[in-house]
Amino acid sequence: MKPRRCSRSACSAVAVATLTYAYAESTAVLGPLSPYVEPHSYDLCGPHADRLTVPRGWAVVRLDPEPPRNPATDDLEALADVVREVARPGTLPGEAPGYGPVPGYGPVPGHGPVQTGTEEPPRDDPGGGRRGHLRAVRTS
Question: What's the pLDDT tens digit per position in 23-42?
């Protein structure tokens, strides 16, 4: 995918911001580069975005870019936290660990108490424990 270029004539620098006009409010909105090319928006490079001027009587709204985040890491950490919480012995879905049932959450169909080894394991669960939405698959 080719990087988007500045919309100003004779400028071929890489765009870093998107400029949109709200004509009814006499406002120019300058924000981070939009994910998609919009027909009535202008992509600007850093120097042109910094030097933006508007007609007298108009306002400029400069939106700060969101702080960079690593979605892959954040999502993996959240998933790991959920798996750790559900894997705690004696914790069922809808219960807060150490506190019992959470108000507003009823029993979850198909989830019973953790198997202690004295009961017969469910036929669809070869591991003998409670079956959640994630499970390990053995490779041979």
Answer: 999 999 999 999 888 889 99
Q: Identify which of 94, 87, 98, 89 has the alpha carbon closest to the alpha carbon of residue 110.
A: 94
- Residue 43 burial class via C-beta count within 10 angstroms: exposed 0-12, middle 13-18, buried 19 and up: buried
Supply the Cα-derived Rg of the chain in whole angstroms: 27
**How far, in Å, CA of 61 to CA of 72, rounded?**
31
Kindly give, in sequence order, each residue whose CB lies less than 8 Å from that of residue 117, ignoring residues fewer than 6 positions away. Answer: 128
Q: How confident is the model at residue 18 (pLDDT cuts 50, 70, 90)?
A: very high
3-state secondary structure of 61: strand
Query: In 10 A of CB 29, how many CB atoms?
Result: 16
In order of 8, 11, 25, 61, the CA distances from 52 in angstroms are: 11, 14, 18, 11
Give the type of residue at 84. Answer: R
Given a contact cutoff of 8 angstroms between Cβ atoms, the answer to whether 29 and 61 are in contact is yes
CB 44 within 8 A of CB 30: yes
